[in-house]
Amino acid sequence: MTDTADLIRAVEQADTPPRLLAAVKTLAKAQDEAGIPTLIAVLGYNNPVAAEIAIDGLIQLGSASVQPLITLLDEYNYGARAYSIRALAAIADPRALDVLLAAAATDFAPSVRRAAAKGLGGLHWDLLDSSLRSTAQTKAIETLTSIAQDADWSIRYAAIVGLQGLAGVPDLRESIASVFAQIAAADTDAAVKARVALATQMISPS
Amino acid sequence: MMEPSEEYAAPLTEPDAIANLKSPDLSLRYYAAWWLGKNRTQSPDAIASLIAALDDEDDRTELGGYPLRRNAARALGKLGDRSAVPGLIRSLDCPDFYVREAAAQSLELLRDPSATPALMKLLEGGVASAMPIPGRPHLAEPYESVMEALGAIGASEAVSLVEPFLQHPIPRVQFAATRAMYQLTGNEMYGDRLVQALAEGDVKQKRIVLADLGAIGYLPAAEAIACSDAENSFKLLALKGLIESHAAEPLSTDSIRVLNLMDTLL
Q1: More confident position, B137 or B234
Q2: CA atoms of B61 and A107, how far apart (whole Å)
Q3: The pLDDT of residue A2 is above 70
Q4: Neighbours of B91 (CB within 10 A)
Q5: What is d(CA B179, CA B172) in angstroms, rounded to the nearest whole number?
Q6: What is the pLDDT of residue B251?
Q7: A 95-124 residues with CB below 8 A of B?
Q8: How many C-alpha atoms does B229 have within 13 Å on its Cβ side?
Q9: What is the largest CA-CA distance in chain B?
Q10: Is the interface score ipTM higher than 0.85?
Q11: Residue B148, Cβ neighbours under 10 Å: how many?
Q12: A78 touches chain B (CB under 8 A)
């Protein structure tokens, strides 16, 4: 029987990349909440393979990871921050809403903004108190509509993916369809145009 | 006299920038050429002034380089006006390597077939001459840019000159040759060779190959691009290249496949 404290120590003391990967794998697999802060720390090790393993572990831990991911969000390392935002987006707990809104609108790193924009479209709104739901969704649409005008094509692309997710809510579909129509008319980038054509196709009732 | 650094910060207008190309202050000329390209000015005046700057003799580096010519050549590629082609072709003979490189890159963007003979001339001598220049960080000629330009132009008469470069000792030169060979022959063997290169080498090599696959819009590479070990930004750009080569309405199943892969990289 292995103690999680040992697994954490193995990650912290790993002195070669293969040892690190093995230790992160074991800790992620243990699925113990006590290992969450260590898995989050791995996101900042600048080792993409280890980070992907840690992210998967955090996502599988689900709602237990949400608060630590928000609290321990790395303000000084945008690589680590992008991984955290991707984990929050995949877990899709609406407690991450404010973090995702801020990241999508104001982060300087495109990788962080893209992950947040996609995440805003996929939150489990039913977990949110019904009195807060519509305000939260309105904020998400506003933010995504605004960044759908960004100068960076990849941010506009991610905004469309986020909006397509939000259009899964029947009440929002019509207003999102009109945002898509505006983007389709105005955007000149081939990839953005293709993505908005696909999104329009996906949300039209057939 | 005002320090050039103060002038750098001042916002330019297009007439200022054009006038500055003839300023006695060489740093102002250099900056103005960059500014005109950056801001994609399209006026005939701007283009004519930049073409004239390709023959500048005033602005020289210690090693005999021509900084203003380099910037003018780069800017002309961005402006998309084919009246620049003859001047850029002449610039392929410039003694400054970086002027020749900038001219080849701009000719790639302008895709004018009249540049083909001059570009082909730079490949003469083949791999045997394509060696590093002692004491300089570059080869004898800007081979990568030249082959990329020939590929973009679709100069099929250059195939036999490009092909030997598939064996060049430097990987990125090989990749440029492979990319051009795919564009010139449409043979999937060359696309697959780039996909193979994506599985090998370090992350710097992967970034170069991703850009090559994006530039040729090689659809069979979509999945290999999406799962290669490089940053998502580079993978997204490569997949964007695939979409751009196959953009059509209504969307094809291939385009939808690529878009779905792009979504996973956000």
Answers
A1: B234
A2: 40
A3: no
A4: 27
A5: 10
A6: 87
A7: 110-111, 114-115, 117-118
A8: 14
A9: 63
A10: yes
A11: 24
A12: no
* Assigned token pair, B60: 């020289």
Q: How far apart are CA B142 and CA B95, in angstroms?
A: 12
Q: Which of residues 129-168 of A touch B (CB under 8 A)?
A: 153-154, 157-158, 161
Q: How far is B115 from chain A (nearest CA, A)?
A: 28
For residue B84, the one-letter residue type is A
Helix (H) or strand (E) holding B59: none
Average pLDDT over all residues of chain A:
94
Whether residues B259 and A115 touch (CB distance < 8 A) is answered with no
| Nearest Cα to Cα of residue A118 among A70, A86, A150 | A86
Judged by CB atoms closer than 8 Å, whether chains meet at B263 and A118 is answered as yes
* Per-residue pLDDT tens over the stretch B111-165: 999 999 999 999 998 888 888 888 888 999 999 999 999 999 999 999 999 999 9
C-alpha to C-alpha distance for B262 and B266, rounded to whole angstroms: 7
What distances in angstroms separate CA A120 from CA A63, A107, A146, B3, one per listed residue?
Answer: 16, 15, 13, 49
Which residue of B lies nearest to A159 if distances are taken between CA atoms? B266
Cross-chain residue pair B262–A191, CB shorter than 8 Å: yes
Looking at residue B66, what is its pLDDT?
A: 95
| Residue whose pair of structure tokens reads 């809104």 in the numeric block | A101
Query: Residue A186 and residue B59: Cα distance in Å, rounded?
Result: 43
How far is the C-alpha of B7 from the C-alpha of B2, rounded, in Å?
8
CA–CA min distance A118, chain B (Å):
7
- Residue whose token pair is 């996929």: A122
CA dihedral sign of residues B228, B263, A36, A29? negative
Tallying the residues shown for chain B, one arrives at 266
Q: Cβ A157–B232 below 8 Å, yes or no?
A: no
pLDDT at B6: 44
CA distance B110 to chain A (A): 19
Whether residue A198 and residue B256 make contact (CB cut-off 8 A), yes or no, is yes
Q: What percent of chain A has pLDDT over 90?
A: 93
Q: What does the block give as tokens for B172?
A: 């990125």
Locate B73 and state its tokens.
């050549």
pLDDT at B2 over 80: no
What are the CA-CA distances from residue B195 to residues B170, B205, B206, B223, B257 (Å)? 17, 12, 10, 10, 18
- The encoded tokens of residue A50 equal 């280890």
Query: Are B198 and B228 contacting, i.e. CB atoms less than 8 angstroms apart?
Result: yes
- Return the half-sphere exposure (C-beta side, CA atoms, 13 A cut-off) of residue A76: 2
